[in-house]
Amino acid sequence: MYVCLCNGVTDRHIREAVEKGCGSVGELTMRTGLGANCGSCLGMAAEMVEQMRAELPLPILAAAA
Predict the structure, then answer these.
(1) pLDDT, tens digit (0-9, with 9 covering 90-100), for 29-50
(2) Structure confidence at residue 56 (pLDDT)
(3) Which residues contact 62 (CB under 8 A, 6 or more apart)?
(4) Is the pLDDT of residue 60 over 60?
(5) What local confidence, expressed as pLDDT, does residue 63 receive?
(6) Which backbone phi and psi does 2 adopt, to 5 degrees?
(7) Closest by Cα among 44, 2, 48, 6 to 23
(8) Contact between 38 and 6 (Cβ < 8 Å)
(9) In angstroms, what CA-CA distances link 30 with 7, 13, 36?
(10) Which residues, in sequence order, are CB contacts of 1 under 8 Å at separation 6+?
């Protein structure tokens, strides 16, 4: 699903960025260009980042596995 039509950023791009450590919409904009034009996608992107970060396992648990 496209989240940022202006820059062609999809939910998949956002998930990959979050999995690589992106923790805010500002970082997401720097990495993908999301929201750099009209900005109408920023609210949805913020919700997605928050939700995806909540789903990721804690780093200490991943290291223990």
Answers:
(1) 999 999 999 999 999 999 999 9
(2) 73
(3) none
(4) no
(5) 54
(6) -80, 130
(7) 48
(8) yes
(9) 12, 13, 9
(10) 10, 11
What is the C-alpha to C-alpha distance for residues 63 and 30, in angstroms, rounded to an integer? 28
Question: Which tokens is 54 given?
Answer: 């909540």
Separation of alpha carbons 11 and 45, rounded Å: 9
**Eight-state DSSP code of residue 1:** -
Outline where 1-65 has alpha helix (H): 11-19, 25-32, 42-55, 59-64
pLDDT, tens digit, 9 for 90 and up, residues 13-34: 999 999 888 989 999 999 999 9
Burial of 33 (0-12, 13-18, 19+ CB in 10 A): middle
> pLDDT category, 58, cuts 50, 70, 90?
low
